[in-house]
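W.,

You were right to be curious about this one. When I first looked at the sequence I had no strong expectations either way, so I just let the prediction run and decided to look at it fresh. Below is the sequence, 327 residues in total, followed by the output.
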Amino acid sequence: MDLVKINELIREKSLFIDNIRNEASKVIVGQKKMINSIIMAFLSNGHILLEGVPGLAKTLTIKTIADVMNLSFNRIQFTPDLQPADLIGTLIYNQANASFEVKKGPIFANIILADEINRAPAKVQSALLEAMQEKQVTIGNETYKLPEPFLVLATQNPIEQEGTYPLPEAQVDRFFFKIKVDYPTKEEEKEIIKRMSVTNNFELNKIIDGKQLIEAAKSVEEVYIDDKVIDYILDIVFSTRTPDKYGMNKLTSFINYGASPRASITLTKAGKAYAFINHRGYVTPEDIKIISYDVLRHRVIPSYEAEAEEYTSESLIREILDKVQVP
């Protein structure tokens, strides 16, 4: 295997990433992590769960990236009275020709922002998760493919929990990443104030389109991952299930559920995507360490005992990464 050749090839094929970031930064201040995560999710055919308080420019960031990538974008506000038909579409009776016609729902777009997913009842959440998994929906007796590429970004508001329907663990596991959107730094907020105090109509250049994005996703598969790095991924995931075997006896009673095999697959795919967006043709253990939080945050469920000791899934992951031997 010619690693130098792979490296050169990936560097060449990933050049557009910098252009996306530069173009998005005309509108967005900071939020580098969210921008990188959205690009990585596209390159890995995954979906993202976003958690953060309102007003952190989540919608603006996603809309800007959709513009730069020349993709269609729909924002769906999830509410307790939302029905699956409001999401996927329905059959409408046409009196003129006495037949039923399909009216497609807002889910037919490349990027879907499912705002406050935990406000909608379970049947609506299931309809969305099914669409995410199958990349198609059924209206009447017909099945319709969703546009490609297709990415769902679902937001959860961590503050208001009244009148919400929390996503079951098994469904949360279907999300590729769970990203915590943080407050901007003081410098970033100063820049936001300056930008928002005047009217700006930024002309954004289209850097890439859906077809090129699908091609780029194929290139990500060519990124080399060594067996030692795969073993490292397995050690991280297995230590969430049987911490005692890795010398972390204390964590045995602190973890309710460990990460599923989906976590191992996601860490591998995300590791390749992370190397790709950093113009590298191979995955390092450090890459895996960096992305582990976003991949495992919603897959490692702390027990009541852990919560009593003020352990979060975040601190459990930190402890695991500190203890598992790096190759």
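Here's what jumped out at me. The chain has two domains: 24-194+207-216, 223-323. And, maybe more interesting for your project: The chain has a mean pLDDT of 85.

Coffee later to discuss?

I.
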